[in-house]
């Protein structure tokens, strides 16, 4: 088999996982309300159960893949599990059944992205393409939400969920040809100065990335509400902003692959965080859609730094437990969402319902993350001296 073929196959797997995630995740709340008819309390319980299950499984499952080395099987299994969960959700009509599926199937299947990147890093050719594969996920998030909206409008939620399930068919055909994982002890990071870290350094990273992921969660939550309530535009304009950011992310991820050879991951994340602060400020100050659309370059730079450089940094910091490192990184996103979104909503209520307060809060969270990362750099410098 030519050396380029395994890379193409792993990219195809990334596209499948990305499309499944982009189709299901943004529509879970809508599914709960419109398809099942859940109350607000039931919807909160449904989503909360999903996130808690995903949080636990994305640490436990990668741990077992580290111990037993079942990385390729775990990736394929998680994709199939997503398809089974989607099919069952397509036929369920009550809150209890949906809740059980969220806990028992959908939560564990949410480990697929983390499992994929730990598997990719453990393959001989894949380890140098972790950042580039993030671009594939951005491509999936350009097409996925739009495709999901089309399927919902055409065939309703059953059409969407069957489409998600069918995505697993290429995986079953490609799985036998995927490259086999090798020992992670020889893996290396594409980032300059990315080295194994002690427990405190990893803890500092986790705190910083929880804050950064909280920022992203708040921005995603607040943007549609600012578009519809402050700018008084249709919700499709919020979709345009998200799609524009995702499209810009693709070349930025590819550029990050080159930058990573010359700059440390800490520097890349801090620069991206500064872009995030500027974007939050623009979103707060201006009430002009063209300005916000132009500012998506800053938003994309922030996302690429956190999602691309961040994951590679975590994996390089715990090289002997790449599955655990990836699961730990993925859980900063879920912890950030649990931290950022409820507190932002509370602030919005305190300040009279203006969702621009939420993006100002997001900028503050990013500044806190920059401070934590800077403290981590000082600690690392002192520990080496």
From TrEMBL:
Indicate the family of this protein. Belongs to the major facilitator superfamily. Set transporter family.
**Domain Major facilitator superfamily (MFS) profile residues, every copy:** 201-385
| PROSITE patterns (UniProt xref) | MFS (PS50850)
Q: Where in the cell is it found?
A: Cell membrane
Q: State the species of origin.
A: Rhizobium altiplani
Give one Pfam family, short name only: MFS_1
From which domain of life does this come?
Bacteria
Q: Which keywords appear in this protein's UniProt record, sorted alphabetically? A: Cell membrane, Membrane, Sugar transport, Transmembrane, Transmembrane helix, Transport
**Chain segments annotated as transmembrane:** 41-61, 73-92, 98-119, 131-154, 160-178, 199-223, 235-256, 268-287, 293-314, 335-352, 358-381
MF terms in GO? transmembrane transporter activity
How is this protein named in the record? Major facilitator superfamily (MFS) profile domain-containing protein
Q: Which Gene3D superfamilies match?
A: MFS general substrate transporter like domains
Taxonomic classification, please?
A: Bacteria, Pseudomonadati, Pseudomonadota, Alphaproteobacteria, Hyphomicrobiales
Q: Which PANTHER family match?
A: SUGAR EFFLUX TRANSPORTER A-RELATED
Which InterPro entries has this protein been placed in?
A: MFS (IPR011701), MFS_dom (IPR020846), MFS_trans_sf (IPR036259)
Record membrane topology: Multi-pass membrane protein
Q: Is this entry keyworded Transmembrane helix?
A: yes
Q: Which GO cellular component term is one of those annotated?
A: plasma membrane
* Statement: the UniProt record of this protein carries the keyword Cytoplasm: no
